[in-house]
Amino acid sequence: MTAIEKFDAASAAYLRNATFTGKSADTLENYRYRLSRFREAWVAAHDGEPEHDPDFTDVLNYRDGLLENGAAASTVRQYLVELRAFFDAMEKPRFVPGISYPENPVDTEFYPTVKKRPYDMILTDDQVKMLLPYRKPENAKKATWTRNYAFVALILGTKIRNSELLSLTLADLDFEAGELTVNHGKGDKFRVVDFPPFAQAAVLLYLQSGVRPKNLPDSAPLFGTTAEHKAGCGATDSGVWHKGSDVWLSECVRRHVLAVTGVDKVRTHDLRHVGARLYLNAGASMEFLQSELGHSSMSTTQIYSGRLQARRGRNSAKEILADMEKTADCNMTLWELHEPAAAM
């Protein structure tokens, strides 16, 4: 068995085990993609025929290549964490007889340092207020403005995760009850969260825009793209509506926030923290936030929510939520003007 055949057999066994232990479809796809990225770099570094198992040098070359090609330090760190977990799992021939990696080539010393901003400093309250109006700046693309506005409104209003937003279907939204169902949360868990009017109105404007084809069933992804997408075995499904990737969603959000506020490098995950901070300081309980965020630990919720601010900050947060309600009314009026016969 060659080194490549061994790696492929180990990867297949690792992914098969992850499938039968209940990992979500998104998690499995991430594992598969990141293992393939390492495999590609490892094989290329040895002219297509590596003669030995991956070693420390191979991992360092992989890390350095990612960083040199512009990957964020946090992204590279996550890739290495997952790669280390793979080699840890394959330390003994548990999954495939005769196949093991007794020495893990991914040393924790290889992890790049990630500089984090305090979560309550990502966007000021004044900058959050700039995100509320449905008013396209000149430097934003008209074709995608409404969709990206809906992304931001949903994350601020419901505080759902990147992968959860991508997995939403129209059938998951209950406009009458004001609830949103997350069928595939972290760990493939189910939960129901508030679907406030601000987020509802933004989604209705998005659906009205025509970006999402009108003939799709309610079970199809709420948000998606028809851009070229790898569909396996070298095939692509360009022209077919499919959900976008985590990177695609984060980049859409980053560009939208930059166009509106001038603040760059704000990710979907950052907006989730901002939304939690606003609700905490507007008076929401930790128990409510824990449920909304889908956390199993209250300590994690406390990190996400930031800190309870002084009176001025708490008043500002309440003003933002009140502005969301006013914006929702304005946006619903705008939607009704263009779709008077619609009823939700």
What does this structure look like?
- With 344 residues, the protein is mainly alpha-helical.
- The chain has 2 domains: 3-110; 119-338, Intergrase catalytic core (hpI Integrase, Chain A).
- The chain has 13 helices and 5 strands.
- The chain has helices spanning 3-20, 25-45, 56-68, 73-89, 125-131, 142-158, 162-166, 197-209, 246-261, 268-281, 286-293, 298-305, 311-338; strands at 173-174, 179-182, 191-194, 230-232, 235-236.
- Strands 1-2-3 form a 3-stranded antiparallel sheet. Strands 4-5 form a two-stranded antiparallel sheet.
- Helix 6 runs antiparallel to helix 8 (197-209), helix 6 crosses helix 9 and helix 11 crosses helix 12.
- The chain starts with a helix and ends in a 6-residue tail after the last helix.
- Mean pLDDT is 87; it is low at 231-236.
